[in-house]
Design a protein that fits this description.
Elements (H helix, E strand, L loop, with lengths): L10 H17 L12 E16 L6 E16 L4 E10 L8 E14 L2 E8 L5 H5 L26 E10 L2 E9 L13 E10 L19 E11 L2 E14 L3 E13 L9 E12 L8 E14 L6 E14 L3 E13 L6 E11 L1
Antiparallel strand pairs: 1-2, 1-16, 2-3, 3-4, 4-5, 5-6, 6-7, 7-8, 8-9, 9-10, 10-11, 11-12, 12-13, 13-14, 14-15, 15-16
Length: about 350
Amino acid sequence: MSKHMGLQNSSTAARALGCCAAAVMLAGPLNAHAFSMQDFSIGAGMRADFTNTHSDNTANNANDFNVDNVRLYLSGAATDKIKFTFNTEYSGSGPSGDDKVLVMDAIARFEYSPEFNIWAGRFLPPSDRANLYGPFYANHWGVYKDGVQDGYANVAIGRDNGAAYWGDFGNFKASFGLFDVPGTTAPSDKASSVIAAARVQYDFWDKESGYWLNSTYYGGKNLLAVGAAAQTADGDTSYSFDLLVEKNFPDVGVFTLESEYARYKGITGSGPGTKSDGAYGLLSYVLPQPVGPGKVQLLGKYAVANTDIPGPNPKLDTTEFDLGYIVKEFNARGYLFFIDQNFKKSAAPDTSYVGIGLQVQI
């Protein structure tokens, strides 16, 4: 599956679409804009979990079945250089009645060469690796719970409306774009401004091609990747530095180290005028031999996030431990997870989560 856009055809969807095409042919001759399966792909993904939640301010634990994400992926080509992507996101919010389907990506893609590509519409702007891999391509289950990852301003699911250039130059990749300031997360005096966003990355070992990124390749690549990103509007600048190291030892297993430091100021995903900074480190190990149809993964992550507001500055410490079962990389995997959030200098209650998570994509 192409990263984050669900570009892999499912056989069931292909048969259904083939039947539709056959019906059209029986109904009458096709015009010059004939439909071709080679120009179109469809996919879908789901993340769901059962979670036991303990909070210091409640007497009883909460037990919930959650549909975290449901996505539909559509992509097609107008020509071999001009393409289009349309992805949706359903976020299940439980009994509150706020369940909704969002336009996640709507991208006109002008892809002329690895070195020269222009995207326009709604998509992930140049930002940190964590934003560019999203929950479906993260190495761990509790992505975005730490106050460090994905702190840039966004209009929906990390996305913004705008246009960007990106290019791959061997092991070096760069991107730059201009985007709207999301009105819900911008100070009122910056709501009509434009965000300038940029990212650069160098892969010292194997290279990562394309715009989207992963948190792991499960041993498919040996990586030493260093990246930096920044977004600025009217003097407020947020920036981040990220690192991914992954090494596959065929007889020993796959080792992965991921880390990031981020500083957000002014225009962020946390609200108008917020300032915060933080860092995290993640280690994972995938055993070399399968256990049944999949492989076992052990993972630990620790993060610290600080918020700069008047008075005592709140601090959030987040610890996560995962026991993963990887059947088919990002298409079929499950987790036993434990996540502990400890709030300091804040009235927010300490909270811990224990649960089982499942991810399936086609």
